[in-house]
Amino acid sequence: MTKKDTEILKRFKSVGARIETKSRVKLKSKEDFALFYTPGVGVVSKHLAAHPEDARLYSIKRNSVAVISDGSAVLGLGNIGPYGALPVMEGKALIFKELAGIDAWPIVLDTQNTDEIVNAIIAIASGWGGINLEDFSAPRCFEIEQRLIEALAIPVMHDDQHGTAVVVLAGLLNAAKVVKKQCKNLRVVISGAGAAGVAITKLLLSAGIQDIIVTDTKGIINEGRTDLTDIKRELAEITNPRAVSGDLLDALIDADAFIGVSGPGSVTKDHIKVMAKKSIVFALANPIPEILPEEARAGGAMVIATGRSDFPNQLNNSLVFPGIFRGALDKGVQKITNETKLRAAKALAALIPNPTATKIIPDNLDKRVVPAIAKAVR
Amino acid sequence: MTKKDTEILKRFKSVGARIETKSRVKLKSKEDFALFYTPGVGVVSKHLAAHPEDARLYSIKRNSVAVISDGSAVLGLGNIGPYGALPVMEGKALIFKELAGIDAWPIVLDTQNTDEIVNAIIAIASGWGGINLEDFSAPRCFEIEQRLIEALAIPVMHDDQHGTAVVVLAGLLNAAKVVKKQCKNLRVVISGAGAAGVAITKLLLSAGIQDIIVTDTKGIINEGRTDLTDIKRELAEITNPRAVSGDLLDALIDADAFIGVSGPGSVTKDHIKVMAKKSIVFALANPIPEILPEEARAGGAMVIATGRSDFPNQLNNSLVFPGIFRGALDKGVQKITNETKLRAAKALAALIPNPTATKIIPDNLDKRVVPAIAKAVR
After folding, report:
1. What is the ipTM of this complex?
2. 0.95 surpassed by pTM
């Protein structure tokens, strides 16, 4: 462990927990007890038993989000289980409160079985206003999210998929402006066919971008591949219109944009050199990007973004999830639709009306972000 | 709905929720983000993945309790489901925070199947420091609690059972002083063989009280009954040493103490009249007791307690659960043992060294209560 890591641990230990609960009413007298506990609470219980739809008006359901993970794909750390996931979920709960005033609480799951996960989340869902799924590995994450969306009458969003997709589309809209190309006409290469890669692909397609190639560790995903999972077979069908085959280097020839959601250090200057002029490079692996900004620039990239706060253009999903859930809670929205995600991406991009190579996206502390995205939720 | 009920609903609606989350750290700068979210949080995630036992030092697990119900036996309202349960659980979370500084959050379950309940709670348990089960109906509550205690390495307590049992024993210890009888020699009749009745019976037995008769809606529970569930058959074996049969009135002949955990209005002055002199009457059905204090007094009762705040001697489990979990969290205790409950009852009773007929138990706003009970947890 580095000295810096030891210091971080020490700091977290002195803090203990980063969130806590807080009372919103006084409980100082017998009268307070009689009103806010028994017998007063019985009146509300009877009312909600008869009118469950009013839970949003009379309980924590009005403003609460469960941040749920099974710890199977935590940050870049991989499958580190519920205790490994807990600090990240707590961090998200902190962000929910600080950026969007939402009462989020972490729930980490001690199972990685899809049925058990779905059953447990359905069982505990009633008291929450929304469910933010986090750090579930692909391809299980797709089925888990889909089944929960169908089963529950509250918004359910796997943030690694859709939060990332929205921020990438927002970044791409503005990056296209900077390089003076039509976004819809961009040739895009997405490296990584996990949760983020799949969701980015689908959102870019629905935004009208037609020439997308997706690669995984075996190379370009195309219909000739015989080793594809169901979700990758679907990707083969809906992407790669020029039927390119080969590896990432082949995919990048004349590409306008590279979007990395794979792993550290998988891309070199030589990869960037084969791209079209004025190329866009989003190297989003965290904490170590697919290629460092200086190397991408040396390869010819014009607009470069990463997931890190210490480089320009941080494309982080914390720009998205607080506003999405703020909007859904405020408006009683039950499903986060594709249209919502497109509107959210456009709203986020529109906050930087005159983007430059080093400023395509707002800072996640920019107070305009949450209201702009919340407004996009209908 | 009465005018008062309408006012209560209006008040709850204006409050919205009685609890919320609160940040314990600042998140105002990029540096704050880098420390308390990524990449800083990754250091803690790695540490906890390798050392799950340290979750108590570095996360919400240090001070959190899930307040969980399936809504099958809510207050005196019966089986009103998760939405009916939600306001009560929120009220308990409020009490946890206000009285014991514990970060509790309500979880209401959309299933009443024992296996599904146990599986869901085990699945979500890792992030919590303790689990307070609430308002689960008997006899399911016994199996659910037992299986969770065996499966989990955090304290699990069904408060309707053990919170109630502890406060009843505490009250009985002091009531015996008032009527100048030896607590161990009391003839006790318990009306109601549900969650509370069973737990009270077992705790009083382990406190050395030997002559206990339990009644249910069919009358006295004894070994001659052929209609008994498993748990009631167990009660028949461990109680009723004089092998009394008949109904509640038969049970009460010469009894020193009546403990009602059944339903409203089931006891009259005539029942109390057949009891021994200087009788003790705990009529704990809520909000309407088995017998009102004035009628019990007219029947000859000397010490009278209810579950209500508007009569003297309120025996409410909110005197117990905050301190039990405060002690367990502070000391990393994994099981709430029978010894703990006995010590807690004695500690609670000892706070009123000179009890009188109208003061056998501390007020639940008495600041000494939580520390005294927490100290009893080892």
Report:
1. 0.96
2. yes
